[in-house]
Amino acid sequence: GENVEQHPSTLSVQEGDSAVIKCTYSDSASNYFPWYKQELGKRPQLIIDIRSNVGEKKDQRIAVTLNKTAKHFSLHITETQPEDSAVYFCAASMGQAGKSTFGDGTTLTVKP
Amino acid sequence: DGGITQSPKYLFRKEGQNVTLSCEQNLNHDAMYWYRQDPGQGLRLIYYSQIVNDFQKGDIAEGYSVSREKKESFPLTVTSAQKNPTAFYLCASSMVRGSVGYTFGSGTRLTVV
């Protein structure tokens, strides 16, 4: 089955700096890669996603890049703010409404 | 709350008991999922269902059971065969057509006492 590895497990940055979280996946058939943000005590929420026919997608301060050849994708957050502090999960899935396999999460702390 | 409701928020189970976690959605989503979240281990798939009266095992199905009698409902039973059930359980739903993200419920924290 699919295996998703996520790095780093913890990340601490100063407010205003950029943060990058990287994930690799094992199954080349995976074609959909969402990212979720989970604030303390709350449910995960979808923040951005990318499909396999796209190399990069941006939404305001967040962007995701995908390298299908290397089977890795990354989340980039620019101009970080304290409210960006949360656990971020990457995931990979295939097919229509395919089940998602999640990475282990990255705890991002943005210091004011 | 957010279209997908999990109850109860907190649940305590005695050794040898079966307990059932509720998940209801009003988003008209076809697919529903149950994940278990443990500290430092991310989300692991227990069961999923893409259509009423059909469901498939995920990666850690042993000791769990589900039913999907209605499109809106996907309850999870944690049986006494699950040896380490203390965890945070998340239910999610999504549309079947196309690759789309999940909408998650607010979770149920199960503790064995």
Task: Describe the fold and architecture.
- Chain A is mainly β and 112 residues long.
- In chain A, 0% of the residues lie in helices and 54% in strands.
- Chain A has strands at residues 4-7, 10-14, 19-25, 32-38, 45-51, 56-59, 62-67, 72-77, 86-92, 101-102, 106-111.
- In chain A, strands 2, 4, 5, 9, 10 and 11 form a 6-stranded mixed sheet that branches. A 5-stranded antiparallel sheet of chain A has the order 1-3-8-7-6, with no helix packed on it.
- The N and C termini of chain A lie far apart (41 Å).
- Chain B has no helices and 11 strands.
- In chain B, β5 and β6 (54-57) form a beta hairpin.
- Classes of the chains: A mainly beta (112), B mainly beta (113).
Report a brief summary of the structure.
The complex is a heterodimer of chains A (112) and B (113). Chain A is mainly beta.
Rounded to the nearest angstrom, the radius of gyration of chain B is: 13 Å
Shape by Cα distribution of chain B: globular
- Principal-axes geometry of chain A comes out as globular
Oligomer: heterodimer
Summarize the amount of helix of chain A as a percent range: under 10%
Mean pLDDT of chain A: 94
- Poorly predicted residue ranges of chain A: none
- Tell how many strands the DSSP assignment of chain B holds: 11
Through-space gap between termini of chain A? 41 Å
pLDDT < 50 stretches of chain B: none
H/E topology pattern of chain A: EEEEEEEEEEE
Q: Helix tally of chain B?
A: 0
